[in-house]
Protein 1
Amino acid sequence: MSEHQTGILVVEDEQEIRRFIRQTLERAGYRVFEAATLQQALDDAVARRPEFVVLDLGLPDGDGTDFVRAVRDWSRMPVLILSARSDEANKITALDAGADDYLTKPFSVGELLARVRALLRRAEGGDAGAAQVRFGEVEVDLARRTVTRRGEAVHLTALEYRLLVVLLANAGKVMTHRQLLREVWGAAYVDSTHYLRIYVGHLRQKLEADPTQPAHLRTEIGVGYRFQL
Amino acid sequence: MKIDNPEQLSRGARHLLALLACGLTVMVGLPLRDVLDLANIAMLMLLTVVFIAAILGRAPAILASFVSVAAFDFFYVPPRLSFLVSDVQYLVSFAVMLVVSLLISHLTTRLQASMQEALEREQRAHALYALAQALAGAMSVAQVVRQVGAFVREQAGGEARFFLPDEGERLGEFPEAGHPLGLDESLVLEAVFRAGSGDPSNCVSGPNGLDLYLPLNGATRRRGVLFVRAREDDPGVPVLRPMLEGVASLTAIALERLHFVEVAQASQLEMAAERLRGSILSSISHDIRTPLTVLFGQADALALAGDHLGDAEREAAGAIRDQAGRLHQMVENLLDMARLQAGQVRLRRDWHAIDEVIGASIRLLGDALREHPVKVGVARELSLIALDAVLMERVFCNLIENAAKYSPPGAAVTVEVRPDDGGLAVEVRDRGPGFPSGSLGRVFRVFERGVPESPASGAGLGLAICRAIVEAHGGHIAASNPPEGGACVRFTLPSSGEPPRIEPELADPAGAGS
């Protein structure tokens, strides 16, 4: 066996789905712990010290969001939510509470593994700390606060720049409307989503090759935005 | 002599009693006439008139005044037993005595009358309080009608009839149609009900000058008309009109309260039904999704990672995955349609840029658009529009996927958005064969597909869902075959008002690249 296997806690009340996720993750080289209830999940999160959690929102003994809140009190480990299209609202509460990303059922194996890898990489700090970030034709120099596109300087307003920096700092992760509004505009603006629409539109116009079909600054309808490097 | 209710005696009897009283006083006074001074005798006679006025009323008192003066003259003033007067100054005494007794009888009866009136008023006020209390506790319209009917009968001696509007705003008597009204009366009734509510006390007297038509003015709207039929021998109704207007207001308030109680109960029931429907739908979708998720995931895992499988098996696994995906899509469509058709889809409107919703839909379709580039044309500087983005994403996904499905490989799908009458108009076009002629009006119906038995997949729900969502937003959707070929679906989204303002950002050197 390899020197260290990343431990993943799978919280899902449907045995069949749990088994299939377990097989997929084990085949990809992860160590998997299973929990079928909220209580068991909370116990396992402490006892087994997983480095990642895959969480179904609809648990028989409680709401997955409660788990996210409890875990966020003491840990930054990534939490990936499994949700159904119909429980949009729960998904957003869970993301607001600190979950990192979500997958809508049914999902493909490739998608699941890609999300797990991306979030683990983020958690290990693989993407952080760089003073310069490149995506598409754009280069952002965080130290010198400059943005260039195809070598030419791009002017961003202070808020546009702040929004871009927050998105870059959370690249690969879903940011809900509330999270972005709170970080960029402040707590008084958490419900003013129209600010986001306008400013994200500006950023796309300035930075994306095709602003109507953005490659990096992606919309998660009904949820928020995701920056994809 | 004590008379409990002098009103009950006839006129003649009361006058007779007055005469008897005068006679009695004369008889009592006769043995004393040598002892008492004449002035004191006159006082006794006056006292009698006061009693008569107080007990028997004005007319007997007036009679008694004259009779007393005459008797005083006849029995006491010398020469006795004659109307002749020895001393002329007695004439002054008679005149004063007559005037005083008339005045006294007048004042006394007036006092009596106002006392009586005060009593009646107090009693009516009590009855009115009791009515208000009863109406405040009434639990049904029938109860209100009964209480008010009894009140009007007892206090004003009239017959109260209620005319309340039905759902079509047509007046009908409640609880049941009684004796039909005359044509003129029906016209007045209708006019009172329809009259503008500007004048708060637009109570109208009936054609006969006695009946009253009292509009029941609630705070929000007119709740009906109270018709009070006066009894012909009882002047109570016209006299008590101010009080009856008060009764009408009380009734209107009670009816309005009952109306809102009803509304609240209905919406509570509706909410319960809604919750039940929602929980049934979500438990069905959960039960179907679980096996589909497993099926889809396992087949996907096999197709990707099955190194030990041959190509044929891997292909089969891929096919299972794709079919499971389609099945899931269909189930989602069916559940969506069930939710939408159950009515009352609660839109979660928020301000959105339409191009963002289109971009997200295209990304969501992903692989389905491998062979079909999508050209998006959005007029610049479109303002934000309030819509339910999750639902609108379904509309764009369905329309674009549909367009791609019917287009020849490599042909572009175009999406155009233009301002339209304050709102937006969206057109999705493809380069396919277009809708079959004659089917244009039907394509948005449930389970209708453009081409019968076409190889293209879909349960035919896609367009019906689009229509339901667009119409829930107040828009309109239509299909056409434009002359330049292909198919076109156009829908509108009406203006949702001014988007909220954005505080302008101060020019700030902290920005980047400046």
Note: DSSP finds twelve helices and twelve strands in chain B.
Protein 2
Amino acid sequence: MPEPALVLRGIRKAYPGVVAVDDAHLELYPGEIHALVGENGAGKSTLSAIAYGETRADAGTVRASGTVGLVHQHFELVGRLRVWENVLLGREPRRGWRIDEAAARSRVLAVAERNGLAIDPNAFVETLPIGVQQRVELLRELDREPAVLLLDEPTAALAPAEIASFFATVQGLAARGAAIMIVTHKLQEVIAYATRVSVMRHGRIVAQMETAATSVDEIARAMVGGELPSVAARAATQPTPCLSVRALRAGSGETSVEDIALDVRAGEIVGIAGVEGNGQTTLADAIAGMIPYDGTISFANEGAQIGVIPQDRHREALVMPWSIVENVMLGRQHRPELRRGATLDRAHARADAQRIQERFDVRAATLDVPVRTLSGGNQQKIVVGRALIDDPNVVLAYNPTRGIDVGAAALVQSRLMQARNDGAAVLLISFELDEILALADRIAVMYRGRIVGEFERTNVDRGAIGRLMAGLS
Amino acid sequence: MTNMRRTLAGPLGAVVLLVVLMSLAMIVAGTSPLDGFSALFYGALGGRSQIGETLVATSALLFPALGIALAFRGGLFNIGAEGQLLIGALFAGAVGAQLHVAGPLGIALLLVLGAIGGGLWGAIAGWMKARFNANEIIATLMLNFVAAYVSLALVSGPLKGPLATGAETAWLDQAYWLPTLLPGTRLSIGILLALAVAVVLWWLFSRTIFGFELRAAGDAPEAARRAGIDIGRITWLSLALSGAISGVGGATIVTGELHRFNTQLSPGYGFTAIAVALVGDLQPLWICLAAFGFGILEAGGLAMQASAQVPKDAIHVIEGLIILVLAARRYVAARAETTAV
Amino acid sequence: MAVLLISLVALTLIKATPLIYAALGGVISERSGVINIGLEGMMAIGAFAAVVISYYTREPALGILAGIGAGALGGYVLGIAATRFKVDQIVAGTGINLICAGGAAYGLVLIYNQPGASAQVPALGREYWVLVALAFVAAAALHWLLARTPWGLRIRACGENPAALASAGIDPLAMRVYAVTLSGALAGLGGAFLSLGELNLYSDGMTAGRGFIALAAVIFGRWNPLGATFACIAFGLFEALQYVLQGRIAWLPADAMQALPYIAALVALAGITGKVRAPAADGVPY
């Protein structure tokens, strides 16, 4: 066995009120691709931040044989700077006072070539597609020739084809002796590309396996610590026309949508599959009435109500310093039952909040605590509960379970299914293909602002969907 | 325990800091803090006329502070209360000097004119923000200077009172003077109006749909927009209302104390009011208390300068420091809260 | 006519100079991600410190240096408040303005025993033309530094995405403190030019909103040193015009003419916003 490139021993990190990482041991060897998996809040991010040296552990030791690099999930790039400026920020080659730009460009090209990545060093990062931006992020770390490379959810925004080429680069890097750790929740990728996997739960590493000798199910059970929660059953419904989109054109540039035709009937869930950045946000904003558009978006019944679950709960759905009760009123402040003349009926709002708390099992000391103090899962339950409380005819759900724990996710999915069973038309936009496959009655695939394929639940072909998502036909 | 510490730390800390800094300013000026403070407190609270002057300053600060709080709660940095107050006062003074309407009705008219003047001045910035997305901070700041020079030009020329020596309008007919509240002092019932505005604002923020939408726009603009709130409307409306409140304040100075418009009528009330609003945590009822505190400083500062030779401008330095320190303290408290989760 | 034109040009350059210094300070600060609303106060304290030191040393050059130092101190305080203590940048800047204006007024009474204005002190002679020329040199230099040097690249990254700078191993907070301090130094220099270049004394309110106009010039100049300089020249022209035109336009009183630069700034502000793009993290605490 070779010397490990990174050794974490007895790592412990506590924040007031919660132990994020508890007595964690981990060894990374040169040439291996090690997956670190676990639910949200299991301690993965804290552990990788400690390994990278960004966070200091309360106890335990970190020993690395060389440089440690970290590729963040949310790219830390500067859109208005060029590729070479981003890659070499902080390590600029100099000639006197100024940056030696020629040397900088050739250095970036050399690193890119060595790793089989195509890139134009002069391009402005904001003009590049997401997949290429990630290359820039990766190049920045590779320029430092790290002995250990940590990758935090690296494929979250990539199409299946891009994922394959990304892992080809990573495998090449490992073959040349780097130790790689990937923090992820995509268990299929763990099985396909990683050599070993460590599972974290409640701050501890509870299992460590060779990927060749395990399965997605086994890893998932280790993550949850038992059986997976189940989602409400799909009931038989009589779908009738409800929401109809025709010749929709909206937005501009990379994220615009064109020529969208879509029907969502009462009593069904239509899933929009696609990689992030292919126009889903524009479609959702047009249907929610947030942006101007050409074409028609029509509802079968007059005065149809639409319940919206926006994708960014912190920015688009909640007022973080406000109480649960006040947040439950937001967007509903003009409803007749909530207003008394110019004032709001707070007692009624409190009753609504209570109803949501009971139906969604919201864990909060009181209904008056700021939602900022709640966990992501509980915040999302409030967002979903608010969208569903007035029994809307149409539900627009955009990544409704992103970044929340498995239990909360199953509950949210169950409530969406119940809304469908009760006769709502549900449009589900999600970047998680598994979520779409689990919930949708029909699936439409979006690529570059267009719907490029449709599938009935009965004849779903996962491979075909994946190819369409990547722009292959 | 921590809760109690946190609630006490703010006001108590501010007072301790205030005392320390004031003492320092007095020592530098060659006065013992004991003499300095006794001069300050005697000057502010030592008798009927002193208390009257303190409350005059309180009232003058309370209006713009409430206006500023309204805009800030809506997420808009209205740094233009000074100009809005001045234009409100100008409207009231210019019309008041020519007025021939029955007494109480005339007074009401002047106050409304103050609101219209200040409201218009605020609405200019609001319209620029809503229509062109022009930065309201710079717009309101610029409008302060425009207000100062335009009013100076007007009362030096066309609006100048026939007997006036400086840049001021003619005096108002006594029928349009606000009744005195505290006999023997300059204090008018304007302060009661200010307190009423505070109560209305409290009700507006905590009970009404408009207040709810205003706070949403201020605390989470994107979530507010998605909740169907018309941000553009909130923007110009809250700046206009904010300006109107400061404008009424200007009008009460004209009808209540000065009985004419004078370009020197505000020694920077609109700027000090920013400190008042922040110290009052943008809560209308706390702002009333803060305004009284700053009223003591304003009125006492003059006395301190006269009898203890401590320049009253030290007060402004201290106000600035209080703004810095109180805002910093807010962050420290917030940080304690988030890391505890 | 020619004489009038020459004096208009000269006056424009003189009036633009303090604005340019302050605006360059504004550019540095905003490119690093901090909106420096305290420029006004830093100009005032710079102008005051310059007069005080020139008064005691009889050496105006030392006064100018003192002005730079006092402005830098104001910038440093704002920088620390806005980064380490996460005070809202606008609130902190407003606080700085009160402290500086109040501090200068307090100092006037202590030192000269009179409110309102200082005594007359030794001022720059013809040398103030050096400072005028230097303003333009500084603009060009800053433009080059921002575009071509590691220092400039890091400032720009800091104002666009401080997290990116952090992951490159550079502390964005330290960068911002440093940038705002430099910004204050330039504003202080602008203030010192006002009190020792154009005049030979300090009086309360002498900065008259120039720091705020400089801030507007930063926007019109699209956060670019050269653009901001052109904007300052335009504002300088408006200020110069009111002197040249005084008494020549009967129907417009002098006091109303003084409002011209501010109205120009307002109109330009409405006209240009929406067509320009601020640094992505400008005004956003890290």
Note: The CA atoms of residues 156 and 167 of chain B lie 5 Å apart.
